[in-house]
Design a protein that fits this description.
Blueprint: H1 2-8, H2 12-20, H3 45-61, H4 65-79, E1 90-92, E2 98-102, E3 111-114, E4 119-120, E5 127-128, E6 134-135, E7 142-148, E8 151-153, E9 163-164, E10 169-170, H5 171-181, H6 184-191, H7 195-207
Antiparallel strand pairs: 1-2, 1-5, 2-3, 3-4, 6-7, 7-8, 8-9, 9-10
Length: 213
């Protein structure tokens, strides 16, 4: 939970509350995939993606948590998934307006609705809401989350730790070695990567302030 909070740029307490509720309000915004498996608070990669969208809605669009919860519940039901925000169909246009595809009550095609205005709309250009995320072409769920520069989060590699894309090396390892040697070239030689890869890792570990920043 602590690492996820750092990546999102929110406090651990705030992130935990999204999944476990607030004092006097035991129902959170989301339910973690791991809630039934561990006593300690943990979240999955798709939980993290849902949270990243929540952070962006709150910080960039000033959407209330009540509205986010209502949207989450509706899309969860419409799409039959506990991770609607992690779906590729969760969309935005170039102006930053947020849309989603919703099912009709009859046999008509699905319609686009502007989430904030609750109006049906036909935007000019649509992109996945988290624009640079890599989505699985079959499941349509997010599978790789870019963080900063060449640094990505891929749950299939290195236990979901931030890595430098193309190398598979965790940023924390490259940064710790650099801090000990103060040489990009030496660390690059040790791990058979490029000095620029080490630099990317160091910049991420020392400068990245979270998705919410």
């Amino acid at each position: 939970m602590g690492e996820a909070a750092r990546l999102l740029g929110v406090s651990r307490q705030r992130l935990a509350a999204w999944f476990h509720g607030w004092p006097g309000r035991p129902q959170g915004l989301f339910r973690s995939d791991y809630s039934a498996l561990f006593d300690k608070p943990n979240i999955s990669f798709l939980d993290l993606i849902d949270s990243a969208v929540c952070v962006t809605l709150r910080e960039k669009h000033k959407v209330s948590q009540k509205t986010i919860r209502r949207l989450y519940d509706k899309l969860s039901a419409d799409w039959n998934t506990p991770h609607p925000f992690a779906r590729e169909e969760f969309l935005t246009d170039k102006s930053g307006r947020v849309f989603c595809l919703i099912a009709s009550d009859d046999d008509e095609p699905k319609k686009l609705i502007d989430i904030l205005s609750q109006q049906f709309a036909i935007p000019n250009v649509l992109l996945p809401y988290l624009k640079r995320v890599e989505y699985n072409s079959t499941t349509k769920f997010a599978q790789v989350l870019p963080l900063k520069g060449k640094v990505v989060l891929d749950p299939r590699r290195k236990y979901g730790k931030p890595i430098v894309s193309g190398t598979g090396m965790p940023t924390i390892i490259l940064n710790e070695c650099y801090q000990a040697t103060k040489s990009f070239d030496v660390v690059a030689d040790w791990y058979n990567v490029m000095p620029d890869d080490v630099m990317e890792a160091v910049k991420f570990e020392t400068e990245f302030s979270g998705i919410a920043a």
